[in-house]
Write a structure and sequence with these properties.
About 50% of the residues lie in helices and about 15% in strands. It has about 500 residues and is of the alpha/beta class. α14 packs across α17. The structure holds pyridoxal-5'-phosphate.
Length: about 500
């Protein structure tokens, strides 16, 4: 008998034992399902799962631990799937584990309520949706962008893009836009995506195995969690503040923990102009972070998903990419995916165009991820809005100055609104997260009960905002300047009422 046949016989024997144990385990699971049904207990119990993993992981040699973890996670899924099927908790048409409860988007819902209120009360403050509006309360659409769009021939608008990865001239224009300080010196690949959302989603889908954990900020754009859920990923959070100042200590701590248990780190960093707080790390903290992650990457791969949605509305926007210099210092075992959004930069939310820029020191690492991104794109949205990719290229080549002038005017408007709001908040003692720049400022409320009461009370005063974990987001980008005046004081009074 050949060696391989001997080994296969051994595997067969082990599989027989596993089958017997599996049968026993499922019979016990059946009893658990009955008990849970009788007592109205939910199938899902993440803390119990964690306890089981923590208990048994050390029983396995260290090199097998990541695989054992996957094996155990898969057992949990099978067990829950059986329980939910037996207890009629699932929908047999839908892939197991998908959340099929009604989807209510916090920002879009709040915005609808604000719009209804506006009809009855023109003094209503709509601080809900993250689109830049002028002082007349309507969305800003830059002429420089839409004139360029009008110059794109109809037949180009009607055509598919030049490739699933996007048009080469678009990808190059985006790269140059992000590399405006000429500070990116490592291999890169660009893939066009439907909005920044598409770029982040590509990264989240392709960088982690199912059941693995994605790191996101403890206060963050809600879609990160939804993306993780769609791909059977877990989420853990890190703090971005210490003593109400931006800090990377929370990130370092969580990345170290993640490396220890998962042997791989994938972290989303929404910087500069974080949504919802308006915080920005700056080049010094980025340099420190990359240095730390380089050291950590000796133990396993580290991927940084840098969501730069709002970077063109940083106060010093010309230099808002200065920190990208730090990506050149990444080790061979690190990579970054920088997610760009035309929705924000060009105020072209409905055009659904963005870009994922992969950066890696090793050409091969960039190329591999690029190839997986293209396949995922092909299988999900196929290709990106051709006319608008052309529009971006045209605008940059033919009327960049006109665009920058319009963008600067919009930025000045935003700066003035945030100056008023921040100054008044400080004067009246409205507690804010440390805002530096960007579309949103957020009132800090740690107590969940108070947060809920406060949010409701603001609604009842026709001040519409979006509730986040531990904060109330005020979209300064959409509130006309005259309505920003006195807003912080009113919000503080309402807070006092509900305290
Ligand atoms: C933090 C953040 N990242 C990314 C996006 C992506 O936007 P889009 O898909 O429209 O480009 C948004 C949109 O609101 C956002 O707030």
């Amino acid at each position: 008998m050949t060696d391989i046949n001997k080994l296969r016989n051994q595997i067969d024997e082990i599989d027989s034992q596993l089958a017997e144990l599996f049968q026993k385990r499922m019979e016990t699971v059946e009893k658990v399902a009955e008990y849970k049904k009788l007592n109205g207990i939910s199938t899902n119990d993440p803390s119990r799962e964690q306890k089981i993993i923590d208990k048994h992981l050390p029983e396995v040699e260290e090199k097998w631990q990541p695989y054992y973890r996957d094996f155990q996670e898969e057992l949990f899924v099978l067990s829950k799937k059986y329980q939910d099927t037996k207890n009629l908790n699932d929908d047999p048409f839908i892939r197991y584990g998908m959340d099929f409860s009604e989807y209510r988007d916090a920002a879009f819902n709040a915005s609808q309520n604000a719009r209804k209120a506006m009809v009855r009360n023109p003094e209503t403050v709509n601080g809900t949706v993250g689109s830049l509006c002028g002082d007349d309360g309507t969305i800003i659409a830059f002429d420089s962008v839409y004139d360029a769009y009008d110059r794109v021939p109809n037949k180009r608008k009607a055509s598919y893009a030049g490739g699933i990865q996007g048009n080469p001239d678009f990808n190059e224009t985006v790269f140059n836009w992000l590399n405006r300080l000429d500070n990116i010196r490592i291999p890169h690949r660009n893939v066009a995506t439907p909005g920044g959302t598409g770029a982040i989603s590509l990264a989240v889908t392709n960088l982690l195995d199912k059941h693995e954990t994605l790191l996101i900020p403890s206060i963050a754009w809600g879609s990160y969690r939804i993306m993780a859920g769609q791909h059977d990923l877990k989420v853990d959070t890190y703090e971005i503040f210490e003593n109400n100042e931006v800090s990377i200590n929370g990130m370092k701590k969580k990345c170290a923990e993640m490396m220890e248990c998962q042997h791989k780190v994938v972290i989303i960093i929404n910087d500069p102009c974080q949504n919802p707080t308006g915080a920005t790390m700056g080049k010094k903290l980025w340099a420190e972070l990359i240095e730390y992650l380089n050291e950590l990457s000796k133990q396993g791969p580290v991927a940084v998903i840098n969501d730069i949605a709002y970077f063109d509305y940083a106060i010093d926007w010309q230099n808002s990419t200065a920190y990208m210099e730090c990506f050149n210092e990444m080790s061979d075992n690190m990579l970054a995916v920088v997610c760009f959004s035309c929705s924000k930069t060009l105020t072209a939310y409905g055009m659904r165009v963005g870009n994922a820029m992969i950066l890696a020191r090793r050409e091969e690492a960039a190329e591999h991820l690029y190839n997986t991104f293209i396949r995922t794109a092909r299988a999900s949205w196929s290709n990106v809005n051709n006319g608008f990719m052309d529009c971006f290229v045209k605008m940059v080549n033919e009327n960049k100055e006109g665009f920058l002038k319009e963008k600067q005017e919009a930025l000045d408007l935003l700066k003035n609104r945030s100056r008023i709001f921040l100054q008044e908040a400080e004067e009246c003692g409205l507690p804010l997260y440390p805002y530096k720049e960007g579309f949103f400022a957020t009132v800090r409320i740690d107590d969940e009960d108070l947060l809920n009461r406060y949010h409701k009370a603001l609604d009842s005063h026709d001040i519409y905002t979006v509730k986040f974990a531990r904060g109330i987001r005020v979209a300064l980008c959409g509130i006309p300047t005259n309505k920003c005046i006195g807003l912080a004081g009113r919000m503080k009074d309402i807070l006092n009422e509900v305290m």
